[in-house]
Each structure stands twice: as structure tokens, then as C-alpha cells.
Design a protein that fits this description.
This protein is α/β, with parallel strands linked by helices and 270 residues long. The chain has a single domain, classed as Rossmann fold (3-Layer(aba) Sandwich). 33% of the residues lie in helices and 26% in strands. It has a 6-stranded mixed β-sheet with strand order 6-7-8-3-9-10, with helices on both faces. A hairpin with a 2-residue loop joins strand 11 and strand 12. Helix 6 packs parallel to helix 7. The longest helix is centred in the last third of the chain and has 16 residues.
Length: 270
């Protein structure tokens, strides 16, 4: 049996009287794009924050490669090879592309110039940045241009390339096409495919169901603080998956069946 790359069992997170995670489970398999979907308040953001070290669950277990881990911060998650592309991209707009690629991980020049005078090896950073961009087929005019001069899709490309450059286990992408047009969204989806094809599994958080069905190998459906279904896009229609997300249907033995008759009737699925 294949061991999940990233796994969680029974995650619980409470904020006072509000339970954001109520025994949530999670499984990310090697070499797949796993979409995480859920209505507002379903707990998907809290789940992802727990899996990337942004918050610590009150109880439950997180495993990386089958081994239990304690992710105390996003920096700790990075050390474990988990990289996140945030919705705001977390790029320094006024700095150039190569500098953004190595933000917080700058390469110093060898010898006294680096150890004593703390000079950066900009030539090496530009060369390595160019390699990462080329690997993902991200076309840019120059790596010395500031990020603020790029289009939305190109900025997303820089953020994705940076994550892939440093990730050894998982890349998490939070709404990567939310602010993009049709053409740029297609380019980002192509990038996600190339990331997967390089062997890195991707966790995709998205509200865009057509994109989810186009790119995802499996879909994790989150509802009321826990996982209620894992489905493959090929096995279920988009309407069925949305109905599972809202509670009108539930998945039993691989089939979508009515869970709430009145809700299912309201959307014409009963």
C-alpha cells in the first residue's frame, strides 16, 4: 500500500466556543494534485494552516512520509519540505525576480566577501532562478526586472517557481487563479501540471469548480470541520460534488446518495 506523502488524523481546533476542525482527516498521495474544497466555514483554511504550520491543532496527528511530525510554524513546515503559495503571493513587488526567488534564503559570495562583508552572489542567484523558470516553462523578459512590472499570471509564476525550488515534499497553492483572466488561469493550471509531472504532489485550495475538475486527480470535500468525502472527478459530476459540499448528498460506497432530501430537491438532484 502506498504511503501518503502528507497525512492527518483526527485534527481538532477550537477557538473558544467555535470548533473550526472537528476530527478532520487528510491524505495526500505521491504525484497527485489534490483539490481541497468546502463552503465558507467548512474549516478548509484552518486545515491547511494546520498542515503548513501556521496554527497548531489542539489534538490529532500530522504525518509526513508516514512519520509523525510537529509543525510549530511555517518556517518549521518549510524545513520539512512543505512550501505554500499564498493567495497574496508573498512577493516583494519592488525587488527583482531573482531576489524574490531567494527571499530569506539568499546566497552569499564565497570566501571573506560572503562571510565577512555579507555580499550576495547575485550572479549565481540569477542563474539558478533562470533554471527554475525554464523548468516550469515560465517565459520572462529579464530576471532583473521588478516583480511589480509583471502581469498577474507572471507574478503567480514567480511564486510557484519559488515554492517548487525549495519544496522537497509538498507544494500548497491557495486560490492560485482567483484574480486571473482566462488565458493566465490556463497558464497557471499548466504550471501546476508541470509541478506534478516533476514528482511533487500539489494541494490546491480553490472555489473554481471548473478548474478543480480540469486539474485535480482527487477532490477532498470539507464540511463542518471534517472531511466528508474523497472523490475522483471522473467518477462524479460537478453538480454532485457541489451537493456533497453543501450536505444535500453524501458519498457511500463510491456513489453519491441523498443525505438531505429537501436540499437535494431544491437543486434538482433527488
Amino acid at each position: 500500500m502506498t504511503t501518503p506523502v502528507l497525512q492527518a488524523r483526527g485534527l481538532v481546533k477550537r477557538y473558544g466556543h467555535v470548533t473550526a476542525l472537528d476530527g478532520a482527516d487528510f491524505d495526500l498521495m505521491p504525484g497527485e494534485v489534490l483539490a481541497v474544497i468546502g463552503d465558507n466555514g467548512a474549516g478548509k483554511s484552518t486545515l491547511i494552516k494546520a498542515l503548513t504550520g501556521a496554527i497548531q491543532p489542539d489534538s490529532g496527528e500530522i504525518m509526513l512520509g508516514g512519520e509523525p511530525v510537529r509543525l510549530r510554524s511555517p518556517l518549521d513546515a518549510r524545513k520539512h519540505g512543505i512550501e505554500t503559495v499564498y493567495q497574496d503571493l508573498a512577493v516583494a513587488a519592488s525587488l527583482d525576480i531573482a531576489t524574490n526567488m531567494f527571499l530569506g534564503r539568499e546566497i552569499r559570495k564565497p570566501g571573506p566577501l560572503g562571510t565577512i562583508f555579507r555580499l550576495l552572489d547575485k550572479k549565481r542567484m540569477r542563474a539558478e532562478s533562470a533554471e527554475h523558470m525554464a523548468a516550469l516553462k515560465i517565459g520572462l523578459r529579464s530576471l532583473t526586472q521588478p516583480v511589480e512590472s509583471l502581469s498577474g499570471g507572471q507574478r503567480q509564476g514567480v511564486a510557484v517557481a519559488r515554492a517548487v525550488a525549495w519544496a522537497s515534499h509538498v507544494v500548497v497553492m491557495d486560490e492560485p487563479t482567483a484574480a486571473l483572466g482566462v488565458k493566465e488561469s490556463g497558464q497557471v493550471l499548466d504550471m501546476i501540471r508541470r509541478v506534478r509531472d516533476r514528482g511533487l504532489p500539489v494541494v490546491l485550495i480553490s472555489h473554481n469548480m471548473p478548474h478543480v475538475f480540469e486539474i485535480a486527480d482527487r477532490i477532498h470535500v470539507q464540511r463542518l470541520g471534517r472531511r466528508v468525502a474523497q472523490v475522483k472527478p471522473a467518477d462524479h459530476s460537478m453538480a454532485e460534488v457541489v451537493a456533497v459540499m453543501t450536505g444535500a448528498l453524501q458519498v457511500s460506497d463510491g456513489k453519491a446518495v441523498v443525505a438531505d432530501k429537501s436540499a437535494a430537491e431544491a437543486i434538482g438532484l433527488s
